[in-house]
């Protein structure tokens, strides 16, 4: 799925000091949406009719005017304001999306008014991450998604501002919304988006939310690891499991079942995946060693790594089999005993983290 562009505008001097770090985090942890600041390093000066509040109509009119003045394609704008935000029917909103009839118009607003006091001691940056990602998913869905029933879901309808705190601390989709998101996104993108909500949940419920947020920002400041999974189709169920776990650990994963669609040129897709990946995880099994595809994939990447020294080969031993000579000197992650799966996965993750310089 192509990335959906989402542009952020700070309106009226909204003090989002860490907006750049927030956008880096969002873009590093998922690739369904591409977040950018529309006007670099400056807040959009705008006074409005009142000194203490904005109306949604004012901001949407401002966005319409802004889109007419600037060139290019700007389909989705999210404004961040500090003042109280009033809608046509309700006042003191924490968020709003422009809608005509049943259709969204690609504009949304997040208000910071009263949020710091409500969230304390959780950093306001966590709220901004939550709102930006929630709006992005709703843009992609097109309409609806918010439900009146209380399901312990990030898309529960929120009227009272205190309910936004509950949603942040819940940090998950209900089964209905999970099914919708699953249909909207590729499998790895869905896992990544769900993971961000869980990260938000963990920070909001931590003993030291500020410290947890800073640690997460530092962690995602580095390039995200990209892992190519080389395997036999016979081992698909195992590979799907480890692919899901690696995405959940913050990696981007090339897994053919997720990447290759009907009509795609398989050879080109595999070659692109190999070229873009800093890590090649080779799943070693009897079926894999009999597969010409696997032999070609790991041999190609291994030689590339040896020549350019910019990629790491990760042998994953699924069962006893004849290990290729070039891979025998390498330490492998031992998945032969299903009961030791978590320990073996931890070895893979540790290897990826320790070779983080090769992630890009």
Tell me about this structure.
The chain starts with a strand and ends in a 6-residue tail after the last helix. The chain has 2 domains: 4-219, Collagenase (Catalytic Domain) (3-Layer(aba) Sandwich); 226-358, Rossmann fold (3-Layer(aba) Sandwich), CATH 3.40.50. A hairpin with a 2-residue loop joins strand 6 (95-100) and strand 7 (103-111). The chain has 360 residues and is of the alpha/beta class. Helix content is 44%, strand content 17%. The mean pLDDT is 86. The protein has helices at residues 19-29, 56-69, 115-119, 124-141, 162-170, 175-184, 187-204, 209-219, 236-248, 256-259, 266-276, 286-289, 292-308, 341-354, and strands at residues 4-10, 33-37, 53-55, 77-81, 84-86, 95-100, 103-111, 226-230, 252-254, 279-284, 312-317, 333-334. The protein is built from 14 helices and 12 strands. It is elongated and about 75 Å long. Helix 1 (19-29) crosses helix 4 (124-141) and helix 7 (187-204) packs parallel to helix 9. A 5-stranded mixed sheet has the order 2-1-4-7-6, sandwiched between helices. Strands 9-8-10-11-12 form a 5-stranded parallel sheet, sandwiched between helices. The protein has a two-stranded parallel sheet with strand order 3-5.
């Amino acid at each position: 799925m192509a990335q959906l562009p989402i542009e952020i505008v700070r309106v009226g001097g909204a003090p989002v000091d860490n907006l750049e770090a927030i956008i880096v985090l969002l873009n590093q942890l998922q690739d369904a949406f591409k977040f950018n600041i529309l006007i670099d390093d400056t807040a959009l000066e705008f006074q409005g009719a009142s000194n203490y509040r904005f109306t949604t109509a004012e901001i949407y009119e401002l966005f319409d005017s802004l889109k007419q003045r600037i060139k290019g394609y700007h389909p989705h704008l999210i404004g961040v304001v500090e003042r109280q935000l009033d809608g046509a029917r309700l006042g003191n909103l924490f968020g709003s999306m422009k809608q005509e009839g049943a259709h969204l118009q690609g504009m949304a607003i997040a208000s910071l008014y009263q949020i710091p006091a409500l969230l304390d001691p959780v950093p306001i940056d966590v709220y901004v991450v939550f709102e930006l990602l929630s709006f992005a998913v709703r843009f992609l869905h097109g309409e609806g998604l918010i439900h009146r029933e209380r399901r312990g879901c990030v898309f529960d309808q929120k009227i009272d501002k205190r309910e936004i705190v509950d949603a942040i601390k819940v940090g998950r989709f209900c089964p209905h919304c999970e099914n919708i998101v699953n249909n909207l996104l590729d499998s790895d993108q869905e896992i990544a988006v769900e993971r961000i909500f869980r990260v938000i949940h963990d920070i909001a419920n931590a003993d030291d939310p500020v410290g947890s947020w800073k640690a997460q920002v530092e962690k995602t400041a580095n390039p995200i690891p990209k892992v190519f999974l080389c395997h036999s189709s016979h081992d698909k169920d195992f590979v799907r499991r480890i692919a899901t776990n690696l995405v959940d650990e913050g990696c981007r994963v090339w897994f053919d079942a997720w990447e290759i669609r009907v009509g795609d040129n398989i050879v080109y897709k595999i070659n692109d995946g190999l070229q873009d990946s800093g890590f090649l995880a080779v799943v070693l099994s009897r079926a894999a060693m009999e597969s010409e595809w696997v032999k070609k994939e790991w041999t190609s990447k291994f030689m590339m790594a040896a020549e350019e020294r910019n990629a790491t080969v990760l042998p994953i031993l699924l069962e006893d089999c004849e290990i290729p000579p070039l891979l025998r000197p390498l330490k492998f992650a031992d998945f032969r005993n299903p009961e030791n799966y978590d320990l073996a996965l931890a070895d893979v993750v540790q290897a990826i983290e320790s070779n983080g310089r090769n992630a890009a």
